[in-house]
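Morning F.,

Quick status update on the modeling queue. The single chain you submitted on Monday has been processed. Sequence for confirmation:
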Amino acid sequence: MSNFPFQRLQVDLAALISRSPAGQRLPSEPDLAKQLGVSRATLREAMRSFETQGLIRRRQGSGTFVVGKTQVMESGLEVLESLESIAKRLGLKVSVSDLSIEATVADEELAKMLNVPLGENLTRVRRVVHTDERPVAYLVDILPATFLGSKDLPADFHGSVLDFLLGRGDALKTSRANVSAIGATPEVAKALQIQRGDVLLHFYSQLFDERGKVVDYSLSYSIPGYFHFHIVRRVKIV
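Structure tokens below.
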């Protein structure tokens, strides 16, 4: 298999990354493609697999950098918990930047996902989660303003809307989530310091209270190499 050009390219890239210290910038795409004897398009495709493993990071306008080894955030999807709670359980340190809490109104999509009328007043909370001083996830929560106003969050809010609601005593019951792999939009790419179109793990979910009312519509965009989610399923006996 290693005789095929693409597999050989991946082996060469893996060797280059493994012997480069964390934080080192790799040669530019044109120089690296010339060095390895491939086209830039082929090189870019090969590098994506190393990005999803969290081994390299492409920063818009700065280049591609080698990432040091980092502990993966691992969790099952059977129980809803915040990234902060996962990190605390694993002994990891996380921080939040670019926190934005703003008032908005429901357009057609948000009205449908939150089951509210068009034009309903909403609160949107956006932030970037970092681990080891690296941005690894971009999170967005949209909630009815009657449930959470833009001024309800405390000054020391640390980033988890779920943890805040649980701490406030809200009767939350279930969450319905959808998971997919998508390419980073310009907004998300800028927040995570990656290239537009880079592959991300995307969750969008609805959080329901005990009456079955949607109280939060959330979106998360995560760099795959830093997260490992699994599902435990029962065997169906027929």
